[in-house]
Amino acid sequence: MRNSRPMILLFPLVCFLSSIISIFCEPNTLGVCNEKEKHALLRFKQALSWMKTVVDGKQSAAATLQGEWLSSNWTPPFQLEYLEADSWKIGPKFPAWLKTQKSLSYLFLSSSGIVDTTPNWFWKWASSIQEIHFFDNQISGDISKVVLNNTILDLSSNRFSGQLPLLSSNVVVLNIANNSFSGQISPLICRKINERGKLKVLDISNNALSGELSDCWMHWPSLTHINLESNDLSGEIPDSMGCLVALKAFSLRKNSFHGDIPSSLQNCKVLGLISLSDNKFSGIIPRWIVERTTLMVIDLRSNKFMGDIPPQICQLSYLRVLDLANNSLSRTIPKCLNNISSMTAGPIEGDFNVLEADYYYESYMESLILNIKGMDSEYKKILQYVRMIDLSSNNLSGSIPVEIFSLLGLQSLNLSHNHLTGMISVEIGGMEYLESLDLSRNNLSGEIPQTMANLTFLGVLNLSYNNLSGRIPSGTQIQTFSLLSFFGNAELCGAPLSKNCPEDDEEETQQPTGVGENKEFPNIAWFYIGMGSGFFVGLWGVCGCLFFNKAWRHAYFQYFDDIKDSAYVVIAIKLKWLHQKLGIYNAEDDDQGSVSTSSVAWPKSECALVYMFEVMFVL
Description:
The chain is of the alpha/beta class. It is 26% helix and 20% strand. Helix 1 (5-24) packs antiparallel against helix 2 and helix 8 crosses helix 9. The longest helix is centred in the C-terminal third of the chain and has 42 residues, at 550-591. The chain is flat and about 125 Å long. The termini are far apart.
C-alpha cells in the first residue's frame, strides 16, 4: 500500500512557506521587496497553493480545478515533482497540460475517468518519470515501438493494443494486465540490452498473447513474480526459466501449454506459488515440487497429470492451497496430511512475502482464481488466509484417511467424483472452521457422523450419490441444507428427506388410537399434555395465592364488589330513564283515547328486568 508519510510532511511545509510569503508581500507592508521580486514571490505563492491542492487530494478541490485541467491550452503556474490524482475525474480527455511539467517524477492518474489515446508526445516526455500509474482507465494506443524506461509502470485495466512494448534495463515493475495486447512475448523478453535487467514483477495476464514462450528468460534473473495467465500461449515451458533463481510466484493458468514440467524449475529455491491450472500438462507430479518447502500454493487443476499424490507433499508446512482437481491421479490419499501445520488450528505463520512484492512505497499482490463453495472466485488480499484442499474429479480410491480430519483449520475440503470407500470418521466434528464440504459421487458407506452437527460454519454440504445409510444428524446447521445435499443415498432417512426412519414408523404404530391416526398433526399428544399442565399451573397459581393470603383474598373480592356496585348503579339509572320515557309514551296514548295492549305489558317487563339484575348482582 502506498506510504503517505512524504505527503503528510510536505503539507505543513507548503502551508508555512505560503504564509511567510504572504507576510513579506502584503500591499501595506514597507518596502521589503521591489516590484520584480514581489511579482516573482507572488507567482511562487500561487504555485505553492496549487501544490497544496494536489497534496491535499480532496475531491472538492479537484472539482474546482477540473475546468482548467480539461482546457487544452491551459498552462499551470507551477512545476510538480509528485502528482497524485487517483480517483479524480480528470477525463475523458488526456490532460495535455502535463507536457509543461519538466520535473515530474511520480505520476498517479489511476481511476481518473480518462477515455482517450495517449498523445504522440507522451512516452518521450514520460521517459524520465520514475513511476507511472494509469490503472483502471480506458486509455488506448499502440505502444509496440515504445521503449519503456520507467522504474514502475502500471497500465493495467485499460485498452492498450498491438504488440508488447520494449523494455530498458531500468524497469523494475511492469503491470499491463487486462488489456488487448496481442502477438508473441518474444519482443518483450528477447530484446538484447547492454545491462543486466532489473525487472522483478511481470504481469501480462488477461490479454490476447499467442505463440510459445521464448527461451530468453536468462536475461531477467531478478524476476520474482511472473503472471501470464488467461492468454492463448502454447508449447512447453522453456528450460531457461530455471535461471530465475529469485522466482517466488509463477502463474501460467488458463493457457494451452503441454508436456512435462521441466526439471530446470527446481532451481527456483524460493518458489512460493505455482499455478498451472487449465492447461494440458501431463506426466506425473514432479517430486521436486512437493519437496519445495517454501510453497504456499500448489494449483495444478484441470490438466492431465497421472500417478499418485506424492507423500512428500506432507512436508510442506507452509502450504495453504492444494488444488489437484480434475486430473487422472490414482491410488490413495496420503495419510500424513496432518503434518501440514499451516492447515491446523491456530494463528497462521510463515513468510507471506512470496505472495507480495514490495517496492518503494508500493506493492504488488498476487491473486488466484479458486473454486470454493461451488463457484470460481478471485482471492487477492485474503489469499494468504485461505486454507483448502481440492482433490475432486480424479481416480482416487481407498478410504478417506482419518488424519485429514485433523486439519482443524481447513476451510474447504472437496473429495468428490472419486472412488473412495469406507465410512466418514467421527473426527470430522472437530473441523470447526470448515465452510465447504463435498464428498459426493463416491462409494462411501455407513452413517453420517452425529458430530457433523458441530460444524457451525458449514455453508456448503454435498454428500449425494454415495451408499450412506441411517438417520441424517439433527442439528440447526445440518437441517438447513436441501435434500439435494443427501440425494442418491437410498438408505438415508430423516429430515430434510421425506423418507421416515424405521424407528419413527414404530413410534407411530405405538401411539393411542385417535392420536396416531392424525398424521397431519403427529405431535398432537404433546399439545394436549402441554395444555392440561398449563391450565393446572395457571389455575392454582392464582387460586393458591388467594387461598393462603387473607389480605389478597379480601382485596380481590372487594375489587369485584366495587365493580358490581358500579354496574348496578349505572343499570338502575338507565332503567329509570327508560321507565320515565315509557310513562310519557303511555300518557300520550291515554290522551288520544286509544287502548293499547302493549302499554299495559311494558311495566311488567320493566319490573322483571330490574328484578333479574338485582338478583344477579346480589348473588
